[in-house]
């Protein structure tokens, strides 16, 4: 009897211990459900759409809008960005649909998945960032930022001849409905390059600022002529970054930090380079060098257009079998004894040459056969056959090198570019 009664306290302690451990695990489970880790996910009240947010170091934020519940991992980034430069902030707080760190407070509206962002250092509401047409193939983001007055960036887009005003406020960066985005377009009696760099610098009073990088490699349309303004593109998800800084110069440094720093070219590249369309032979270049020297111009180089390899324009129904697009060699008839001439310019005149390189390769050349046999030409979708470009064949008829294949680039360098490099190009 005494032995059995002595076990009761032990049993009571064990029961209490098991009950206590169960409570600890239950509380832990509840806390884990209510408090997330960086990145954070917010669900739409009436659908399975989600907003994913990363709080980043260096005054950065990263957003992703999706039509389904994402995995608890980092937001995907495109090849435009340097992954190692985008680090998560480890110091943050969450209270329901509100996030904060030392720089920002973010309030998410679960009815709309709009994110309102306030920069605490600038005492500035950056804006309301809201999903736009997420059910459509052409989707994007609308941004209500009434304190922002000026917009800069987005690459190269020509609007008004005779002015260098780069403020994009009130304008639209239009990729054209039937266009591909980046392209040569007619402008002011010329054909200029319209090139998208998807970073927008937004400026308010004083040094108030934020940068928006729209992480999509598809063509984009930025409508900055309305409030809220919007950016649209193709893609299944909508992804973007927001950064702020003490001023615009440091904002540009933020952009360079996440996209990478390009190697600095040789010093002479920053000198005076001369070009025209185009130099037909060595004598034309000699004449220009002599004219510039006589007027004390410190010329450093010449850019050579398609004439250097014998390129020409074909118009109408004419024979194109003689096209030299794809040779990447000096035309011996117009530019004879090229190796000696390149050396002479370099040693006697201090002048370098920069010849244009085209991705077009005429199907009548041996180079086309070599590239096609190795699978290094761009192919028709779902086929191993090289594309044959016949629309507007001003250059000839053939295809293009598949630069997405690194072996194609290696082959082209070893068999073509290396010869030019050895000549001093």
Annotation keywords:
425 residues; alpha+beta; seven-stranded antiparallel β-sheet; 7 helices; disordered N terminus
Biggest sheet details = 9 strands, antiparallel
Number of strands: 23
Low-confidence stretches: 1-34
Query: What is the mean predicted local confidence, pLDDT?
Result: 90
Helicity level:
10-25%
What is the H-and-E element order? HHEEEEEEEEEEEEEEEEEEHEHEHEEHEH
Q: Structural class of the helices, strands and pairings?
A: alpha+beta
Radius of gyration: 30 Å
Number of helices: 7
> Strands of the largest sheet, in order across it?
4-5-6-7-8-9-17-16-11
Shape: elongated
Outline the structure in words.
Helices cover about 20% and strands about 25% of the residues. By secondary structure, the protein is an alpha+beta fold. The strands form five sheets. Strands 4-5-6-7-8-9-17-16-11 form a nine-stranded antiparallel sheet, with no helix packed on it. The radius of gyration is 30 Å and the shape is elongated. It starts with a helix and ends with a helix. Mean pLDDT is about 90; it is low at about 1-35.
């Amino acid at each position: 009897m005494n032995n059995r009664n002595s076990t009761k306290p032990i049993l009571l302690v064990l029961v209490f211990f098991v009950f206590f451990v169960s409570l600890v695990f239950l509380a832990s489970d509840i806390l884990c459900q209510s408090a997330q880790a960086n990145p954070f996910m917010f669900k739409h009240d009436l659908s399975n759409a989600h907003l994913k947010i990363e709080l980043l170091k260096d005054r950065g934020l990263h957003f992703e809008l999706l039509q389904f519940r994402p995995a608890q991992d980092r937001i995907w980034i495109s090849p435009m960005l340097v992954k190692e430069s985008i680090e998560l902030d480890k110091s943050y707080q969450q209270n329901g649909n509100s996030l904060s760190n030392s720089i920002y407070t973010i309030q998410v509206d679960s009815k709309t998945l709009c994110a309102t962002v306030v920069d605490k250092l600038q005492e500035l509401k950056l804006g309301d960032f809201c999903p736009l047409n997420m059910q459509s193939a052409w989707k994007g983001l609308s941004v209500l930022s009434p304190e922002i007055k000026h917009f800069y960036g987005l690459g190269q887009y020509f609007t008004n001849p005779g002015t260098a005003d780069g403020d994009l406020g009130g304008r639209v960066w239009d990729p054209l409905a039937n266009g591909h985005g980046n392209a040569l377009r007619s402008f002011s009696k010329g054909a200029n390059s319209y090139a998208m760099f998807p970073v927008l610098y937004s400026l308010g009073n004083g040094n108030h600022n934020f940068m928006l990088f729209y992480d999509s490699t598809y063509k984009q349309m930025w409508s900055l002529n309305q409030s809220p303004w919007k950016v649209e593109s193709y893609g299944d998800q909508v992804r973007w970054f927001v950064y702020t800084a003490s001023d615009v110069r440091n904002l540009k440094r933020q952009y360079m930090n996440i996209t990478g720093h390009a190697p600095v070219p040789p010093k002479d590249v920053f000198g005076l380079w001369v070009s025209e369309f185009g130099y037909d032979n060595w004598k034309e270049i000699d004449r220009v060098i002599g004219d510039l020297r006589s007027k004390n111009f410190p010329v450093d180089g010449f850019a050579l257009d398609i004439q250097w390899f014998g390129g020409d324009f074909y118009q109408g129904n004419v024979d194109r079998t003689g096209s030299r697009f794809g040779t990447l060699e000096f035309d011996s008839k117009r530019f004879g004894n090229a190796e000696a001439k390149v050396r002479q310019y370099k040693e006697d005149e201090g002048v370098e040459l920069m010849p244009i390189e085209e991705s077009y390769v005429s199907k009548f050349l041996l180079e086309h056969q070599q590239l096609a046999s190795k699978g290094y030409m761009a192919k028709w979708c779902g086929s191993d056959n090289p594309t044959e470009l016949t629309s507007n064949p001003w250059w000839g008829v053939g295809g293009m090198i598949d630069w997405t294949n690194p072996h194609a680039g290696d082959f082209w360098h070893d068999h073509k570019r290396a010869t030019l490099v050895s000549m001093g190009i």
